[in-house]
């Protein structure tokens, strides 16, 4: 995903843990912001994977439009004035399911990529939290852990992104997923799947920083008690997605160029072979379209990211709430025996 959403896993400080002598006036009002201390790593991974897959798939047709709108020198038949007009024309001229082309590789990559992200995030966060802060939750540790996890997440997701975007382009020559993988491997070598990796990381790390800062600021205003409040999670998630998506669009345009190796654009620049490196991508984008080219497709990117992020945060926050309530019920059941 262009900037993909990775969820800040709740601190595993044992806020639900208390001695037998300590009472609780209302066992049903648990602090869901902190998952029960005995929740397994598999549970964290499952929650993240489900939220991640939903995030990538629900608004996938708009993502297809975004990829095409970021084309630097598009075919006259693939020039669009807006997201709705683009979707309408694609369906009318290329078929109902054309906007979903490449969805299969996205789903194959999103599940394990988000699961690995959570596994790495949890382990790194706990280790770094003890280093920076002996008690409680360290924001610095969370940030560093998220950056480390992003490196691993993108290592899995980057090849899926390359294949996805090549299949999304207008007049794509590939018959399907495996044809695209085989053709790229034979013609460009395995390195083609990681040609945009450094650009992806350069985009996703600030994307995550802006995303989490915005989300937390919105939660402080909309949900200061940090209770389970679906409305606040949707609103905060949508705004966080919009802001982070808009700010990182220039890097996303460069990533799309590196992924698709757009022939018309590269031929006009007399680029022989394949375009590599973030610096070369930046120069090529600027020479072909000036500063405005760095924001091609920004409307589609924001429209895609807002509901995707809102849905993903809602799903993850629901998992936190549901699992916490389950744990409290089990504790209450044991205490009544």
TrEMBL record:
Keywords assigned: Ion transport, Iron, Iron transport, Membrane, Mitochondrion, Mitochondrion inner membrane, Repeat, Transmembrane, Transmembrane helix, Transport
GO cellular component: mitochondrial inner membrane
Catalytic function, reaction form: Fe(2+)(in) = Fe(2+)(out)
Transport found in the keyword field: yes
Membrane topology: Multi-pass membrane protein
Keyword Translocase assigned: no
Sample GO molecular function, one term: ferrous iron transmembrane transporter activity
SUPFAM superfamilies linked: Mitochondrial carrier (SSF103506)
Biological process terms in GO annotation: iron import into the mitochondrion
InterPro entries: MCP (IPR002067), MCP_dom_sf (IPR023395), MCP_transmembrane (IPR018108)
Location(s) in or outside the cell: Mitochondrion inner membrane
First and last residues of every Solcar repeat: 39-127, 137-221, 228-322
Coiled coil: none
Main localization, broad class: mitochondrion
Biological role stated in the UniProt entry: Mitochondrial iron transporter that specifically mediates iron uptake in developing erythroid cells, thereby playing an essential role in heme biosynthesis.
The family this protein is said to belong to: Belongs to the mitochondrial carrier (TC 2.A.29) family.
Official protein name in the record: Mitoferrin-1
